[in-house]
Amino acid sequence: MTDKKSPTVVRAIDSAEPSSPARDAIFEDTASGSKDFKFDAKTASVFDDMVGRSVPFYDEIQRMIAEQAGDFAVPGTQLFDLGCSTATTLLALDGTVDPGVRFVGVDNSREMLDKAQLKLEAAGVSRAYELQVADLNTDRVVDNASVVVMNLTLQFVRPLHRERVIRWIYEGLTDQGCLLLVEKQTLSASLLNRLFIRYYYDMKRRNGYSEVEIAQKREALENVLIPYRPEENRLLLQSIGFGHVEEFFRWYNFAGIIAVKN
Ligand SMILES: C[S@@+](CC[C@H](N)C(=O)[O-])C[C@H]1O[C@@H](n2cnc3c(N)ncnc32)[C@H](O)[C@@H]1O
Fold this sequence. Notes:
Blueprint: H1 41-54, H2 58-72, E1 78-82, H3 88-94, E2 102-107, H4 110-122, E3 129-133, E4 145-151, H5 159-172, E5 173-184, H6 190-206, H7 211-221, H8 230-240, E6 242-251, E7 254-261
Parallel strand pairs: 1-2, 1-4, 2-3, 4-5
Antiparallel strand pairs: 5-7, 6-7
Helix pairs in contact: 2-3
The protein binds S-adenosylmethionine.
């Protein structure tokens, strides 16, 4: 394990982070939809703008995660943010979680973690923390955790591996620990599913995305973001052993779930 004073995991970068995120225009190019979506350097460079304009109530979701984590995190344990991207959630959590809780941000995109490191340093986060490059499809990372956050990340894990990922999280949680899971979902009722998707694309239009951008990104995400149905996510959590499973957020096809161990 490493801490903030010995950053062996992510190299330090000395350039300053811009105060407002660069605007996402990745899918303006009409050929961009033909390639699978990747969390590479290009995506990392505009990610904060992208996620803010693509996820309904993104800031409120962050606030709700931080609020709940503040009540479940226990000093002497760890908090994991799986798929932490640029550390937006870790920064929100730093304001609500006891400083005796060590943070571990995990992502398989080094470019995202480079951004995360810059943001954590710029904010002067002083608790023990680590940023770890790991692939959730294969790597077991959660240990001595009172809180695990997965905000819009499980949907990118191959379905074949999801049950194992959730089991490893469950086993790595302390008693009364919680998983805060936010996912884009699909619905069994095709009429409602179609309508909810339409309302979602209307939101993206309101947030400044063009028809081309919406269509190209949808195509690029086709084989990469695989949403489960609400009942599949709930069953997955319950079948692994989580005793309390409650929805804490819902906006059409987006849901936040808290799952408590025991
Ligand atoms: C939609 S973003 C998550 C957003 C972030 N949690 C937030 O609150 O802003 C998904 C993240 O999961 C990461 N990711 C996707 N598949 C992964 C995997 N197999 N292992 C680890 N990280 C993964 C991506 O690199 C990306 O940073």
